[in-house]
Amino acid sequence: MKFNPFVTLDRSKNCKRHFSALLHVRRKIMSSPLSKELLLKYNVHSMPILKDDEVQVGIRPSKVIITSLKLDKDGKKILEHKAKLRQVGKEKGKYKEELIEKMQE
């Protein structure tokens, strides 16, 4: 049952909007998580799917997992940026030992 009158359930309209979406929206729609090996290697959880990436399709097609990435210079740049942001997020709000020693002096 549809509760929001501004959202359509028509399959053809949804399909059209999915495939004719703007690139920055389609990039977010067509992203999927990386496998555990790639997660440990690159320290990144998800990436947009590109043409030559290999994916593992589970029970449902919407639950794909990227098993190997085709990395070009832009892909490497995205991975480095995301990994750097994750590293900054882990250190955020934590005091380092040197700062604690300086504060005690």
From TrEMBL:
<comment type="similarity">
    <text>Belongs to the universal ribosomal protein uL24 family.</text>
</comment>
<dbReference type="InterPro" id="IPR014722">
    <property type="entry name" value="Rib_uL2_dom2"/>
</dbReference>
<dbReference type="GO" id="GO:0006412">
    <property type="term" value="P:translation"/>
</dbReference>
<dbReference type="Pfam" id="PF16906">
    <property type="entry name" value="Ribosomal_L26"/>
</dbReference>
<keyword id="KW-0689">Ribosomal protein</keyword>
<dbReference type="GO" id="GO:0015934">
    <property type="term" value="C:large ribosomal subunit"/>
</dbReference>
<dbReference type="GO" id="GO:0003735">
    <property type="term" value="F:structural constituent of ribosome"/>
</dbReference>
<dbReference type="InterPro" id="IPR005756">
    <property type="entry name" value="Ribosomal_uL24_euk/arc"/>
</dbReference>
<keyword id="KW-0687">Ribonucleoprotein</keyword>
<dbReference type="InterPro" id="IPR008991">
    <property type="entry name" value="Translation_prot_SH3-like_sf"/>
</dbReference>
<protein>
    <submittedName>
        <fullName>60S ribosomal protein L26-like 1-like</fullName>
    </submittedName>
</protein>
